Amino acid sequence: MASFCSDCIVIGAGIIGCSSAYQLAKKGCKTLLLEQFRLPHTRGSSHGQSRILRYAHPEPIMVDMVRESFQMWQQLEKEAETKIFRQTGMLLIDSESPPHESNEWDKVFANCDIPHEYLNSKEMCARYRGIEFQGNYKVTLEKMAGVLAAGKALVCYQNLLLKHGGKILDGEKVLDIIPGRKVTVKTTHGTYIAKSLILTPGPWATQLLLSLGLKLPLTVERINTCYWHEKVQGTFLKFPVFADVTVRDPVNAERHTVVYGLPSDEYPGLMKVCLHHGAAIADPDSRDRRENGNMEDVDILSRYIRHHFPGLDDLPHIVEPCLYTNTPDHVPIIDKHPVFPNIVFACGMSGAGFKFAPVYGKILTQLILGEHVDYDLSAFRYNRFNEPGAATMSKL
Question: What is the mean pLDDT of residues 115-126?
Answer without folding.
Answer: 95
